[in-house]
Each structure stands twice: as structure tokens, then as C-alpha cells.
Amino acid sequence: KQSPTRAYLAASAAMPRVPRRPSDEARRGAYKPPGVDAARSRRRREDRLLALRRRNRDAGLFKRRREEPSLTPAPVVPPPDAAADATAPPPSSEPSSPPSSPPPADALRAAADAELEGLSEMVDKVWSDDTATQLEATVQFRKLLSDGKNSTMIKIIRADVLPRFAEFLSRQRPPQLQMEAAWVLTNIAASDYTLLVAECGAVPRLVELLESPDANIRHQATWALGNIAADMPSCRETVLDHGAVTPLLAQFKEDMKVSVLRTATWALSNLCFGKLPAEIQVGLCMIIFPS
Q1: Can you give the residue ranges of every domain in the chain?
Q2: Which ranges does the UniProt record give for the ARM repeats (predicted)?
Q3: Beta-carbon neighbour count of residue 284 at 10 Å?
């Protein structure tokens, strides 16, 4: 007589086998080529995304747009005279009117769009022979570029006025024209079109402006050269080939403003990013350690 256990095992063996459901790994292997590891592929994608974020962050650190109204220091107001205070009328007890609120963003955008529509007129003014008209148009271009819009940048570049601004860098009269032209080129060099600034003849003139008697012009030229050097190795080599290192190091003076020293340090760091030629390294050592 067969035991119940053996009878159950025999009946189970006689029953048809139901196919097992394939595992997730087996199903993935059926659709992916052999040798592809899902975890490794995911890590590789994460590494690529991290590298892209770092490149975008570094690009933002290496390039700087100038957005503040002016580099010119505010005039110092002398203290009031005591005699004048004695004879001055007492302050009014009426409440002062609240400060005027800034214009809304829509109004600013409308004003910028209106100026952009008159771009052809601005181009004509830039190419005029009157210095005052040239300065007025350069200021208008600078204001347009301060918003940082890529569409505005493209339209200005297509107007083919960059060589004219590079030419203004050599105009010593008025010095404000040099300042505004360098400001325009600084903001363009902070965009994706830095190579156009490097190729329009601005680099040697910007290097010459590092020896300008005007500290604000030197500061702006340093800023522009720092943006150019931060773009790509070829732009950095262009700045180095025109001898920008020595006049940049000359900016480090005891009586210089902290903002100027900070900008000069940042520009030099962009020039030193990567491997410098041997003659540049020796020259830097001789300038920094003259003894």
C-alpha cells in the first residue's frame, strides 16, 4: 500500500508544469543588448548631468555682466556749516511726501522695445562723425545690453557695430566714450558671443586702457579682458599674446579700491586657468618676486 505522501508526490509529478514568470532582470535582458548594466548606465547619466551643472556654474562664475549704474564714485557732501544751521528755518512739521515708486516692469520692457525699434537710427548715430552723437548712441546701446536678453544681443551683433565700439576705445576725448564703449564690449563678452569681441580688434585697445589715467576706465578694461579670457583657450591666448599680464599686475596698488583689486584678481585667475606657456610663468614669477 502506497503512503499518502508518496501518492501526492507522484500525482504532482504527473501534472503539467506551469511556466514561471521571468524575473525583471531577465525581461530587461531580453530588450537590452548584453553587457549593459542598468545601475552603471544610471550612474553615468547622473555624472553627465552633474558635469553639465558644474560647467554652467563655472561659466557663471568666470564671466560677469556689469549691471550697476556707474563705476563713478558718488560725490562727497561736505558737512553743513554751523552758521548756516543757526539761520536755517526749522524743519516743517508737515509730513513728507512718500518716495516715488520705481516704474513697473511692463513700462521698462515697453521702453526697451521702443529703443530696440530705433536700432537703425542708433547705428547711424554710432557711425556719425559727431563725438556727442557717438557718445549718445553708445549709451543707448549700453542700456539695451543691460537687460541681458539674448534676442537683443543678437540684433545688436547683426548691426555690425562691434568694430566701431573697438575703435572708440582709442578715443581719448571724451574719456566717457572710452568708458561706455568698454562697458558695451564687457556685456557682450559676458554672453555666448565672446569670440566676436576678441576678433573685432578690441583686445589690444583694452590692454592699452589698462594704463589709462582714469581708474574707472582701467577697471572697465580689466572687467572686459577677464570676460574674454574666461571664454575659451583661444581667447585666453589672444589676451596673453597682447601682453595683458604685466599691466594687470600693475593694478595691484595700495591706494586702489577693493572692487578694482577684486576685479583684477578675478581677471588674472581667468588668464591662469589652464596651462600657461613657460615664458608666461617665468614672467609672472619675475614680476611678483622681483628680488
Answers
A1: 112-288
A2: 201-243
A3: 17
